[in-house]
Every structure is written in C-alpha cells, then in structure tokens.
Amino acid sequence: MLKSFDIYSQNNVLKIIVALNMLLVGTATLLYTNRLINRLEEREERYVQLQAKAISYLVDPSHNNSGDITFVTNEILAVNHSVPAIYVDPDGNISSRRNVDLPPGTFEEQQQFLRREIAEMRESHVPIVVEIGDGRRGLVYYTNSSLLRQLKYFPYVLLIILGVLGVLAYLAFSSSRRAEQNRVWVGLAKETAHQLGTPMSSLMAWVEYMRADPQQYDESITDELEKDVRRLETITARFSSIGSIPTLKEENLSEVVFQFTDYLAKRISTKVNMTVTSQLPAGQTAKINKLLFEWVIENICKNAVDAMGGVGALRINMLALPHQEIGIDITDTGKGISKANMQKVFSPGFSTKKRGWGLGLTLAKRIVEEYHNGKLFVKHSEVGKGTTFRIVLKTEQTAKAVQPQLSTVEKT
C-alpha cells in the first residue's frame, strides 16, 4: 500500500520545490525572450540598412541614370512602419524622418525636437552611414520600435507576475494548512467535550446519591467531589466553545481576574508567590467571554509556573493603555525564552516540556485575537530571568470618572 503523504511534515520541502520550479520558469522565460529580442533587433537593423541603401540609390547620380526608381520608394523606404529613424545629410541638415511624430510648434521648435531625438538615438544605437558618392556621407539615426521596447521589458514584468503568483500561492497554501489544522483542533475539542459528557452525568448522579445518605458519606468529601465535577463541566464548556462564535458580555475585568486567580492560586505550587494588582479605574469593564478568558489566564499562568519549575514569583498587573485599551501583564521569574524560540512560542506543537502538547499558548492567542479582537504577545523575555506576556483588550469608555486605584491580592 502507498503511504499517505503528510503535507504538514513536508511543508518546507514543498516550498523549496515550488520555489525551484518558479525559478526555472522565470529563467527559461528570460532566456527565450532575450533571444527573441536579439533577433528582432537584428531584423530592425536590417530594415534601417535597407533604408540607408535606398537613400543612397536615390541621391547618387550614377543610380539616377538607371531609370525607374519607383520600386525603391514603394518597397524599400515604405517598408519601415515601426522603427523611428531620422536621416541627416552630409551638410548636417535633417533631411527626412520615419515614424517620428512632430509636436505642434514652429519650424525651429520642431528642429530642436528632432535634434534632441537624434541625441537620444545616438546613445542607444550607432548611426548607419549612407554613402552618396564623391566621398560624401549621410547618417541615419534610429531607435527601437515600440514593439521591441515592450518585448525588452516583458521578462521583468513576467518575473514580477510570477513573484506575485508565488506569494499568493504561498499565502493560499498557508491559509489552507491553517484552516485544516483549525478543523482538526475544533473537531478534537468538540469530540473531547462530547466524550466527557457521559461520565460527568454519571458522576453527578453519584454525587446526588452520596448526598442522599449523609450518614455513610462524609459531606466534606461530597462537596469536594462536586467541586471537581463542576470543574470538569467548566472544562467541557470551554472545549465546546472552540470553533463557535462566543458570546461576549461587558464584565468588570478586575473582578473577573481577581476571582479566578484567587481560585487558581490554591491549585498551583505553594512555592510560587502570586501577586495580582490592578491600576484600572474603578468599574472598568471590557467585552469578554468569561469562561474562555479565564482559560487564557490559566494557560499563561500554568505555563509560567512550569517555566519556573514550581518555584518563583508570578505577578499579574492590569493597567489602562492609550486608545481605549486595557493591558494585562503576566510576569514570571522563570527560565525565559531564547531569541530562537521567540517566534515559536505560539506555534502549534511547540513546547520545551517533555510531556507538553504545545497547544496552551496557541489556544490562548487564538481566544484573545480571534474571539476578543485583542492581542497576545511576549512583551519582554530574558533568558535566566523571566518572561512577561501582555494581553491587550479593546474597551469602551464605561469606567467611572475616578482616579485609578491599586488593588493587590497575594498568595504566599
């Protein structure tokens, strides 16, 4: 059987193949069109040489004695319909021109215009000498036709087009890959929520059964069991929300963060000193989905605790930012993030832990940026000293007109 082709693991290989193919196409096109341009240039030069010979035939008295010269004017001089050319006689006077349109104006202005054209033609091509007898010589100046100029720039235009197509192909490929990954994550999250539903229902039934017989089952044990079941319900609700448009409500942000971190502080290492402060105006609200936003705080905080090895300081600070925005800084004293990994911390599957799935920060970023129209990024990190993540949320002017106050909750 043929093995399935893993498009994600072969991503870099595919990019290299696409880039090489585009380079080959562009190079082949450039070589071919340059060859075509050279041939056209040679042909146009022959046309001008015919014109020069025709002028020589007309001007040289020895040729005039031959009789009918109508074919010269009809078939040789008139054959040039595209190449701009100007004939200057031996005395330096402009005698004739082909395919050069004169601007309106006086005779002297038109002569000046033709002189400028001759100067430009001299820079692009060596003039062709016209022998008219008795050692006298005229000159035919010419330049490329409009067709030749178009063909000359065609390869560069084509390369630009190929480059744009390449960028679009890359963006389409990346977008398709991300969309496929999103579908996998959403499907996995919803299936997890679905699978948790049945055992949770059973557990709730057991809790009710135990409460019905308080003499046999200690009430404190039942209460703790119920808390764990409620916690599983919260987790299930979070997974169910992935892939769906969440409902956002105006919430007092300080209250939400204080309440959840108070819950979280009791469930992390006792050797971590957690400090939560707020510099937001009293009553400051923001539109959030409380369930999902708590998940963001939890993911970042647990990631920070892991980075500190369960020992250190964890600081959460809420502050007002310009442009009606709120910032939440989460700072740890962990091992920090190297520059090489700075761009990877939010990538799916990236983890420095042996048992890590590398999805926590990825989901947190998605929840903040896609569902809350905010930002999540690494504000600062130094190896061996710690990291600060910043969450930025947009807000309306709903805060009370009071001075910001500092509130603190500590877990020691």
From TrEMBL:
Catalysis performed (reactions): ATP + protein L-histidine = ADP + protein N-phospho-L-histidine
Residue intervals passing through the bilayer: 12-33, 153-173
Classification via Pfam families: HATPase_c
Annotated protein name in UniProt: histidine kinase
Keyword Lyase: no
Enzyme class, broadest EC rank: transferase
GO BP terms in the entry: phosphorelay signal transduction system
Protein's UniProt keywords contain Transferase: yes
PANTHER family: PEROXIDE STRESS-ACTIVATED HISTIDINE KINASE MAK3 (PTHR43065:SF10), SENSOR HISTIDINE KINASE (PTHR43065)
EC number(s) stated in the UniProt entry for this protein: 2.7.13.3
Keywords: ATP-binding, Kinase, Membrane, Nucleotide-binding, Phosphoprotein, Transferase, Transmembrane, Transmembrane helix, Two-component regulatory system
Domain Histidine kinase: 191-397
Any one GO MF annotation of this record: ATP binding
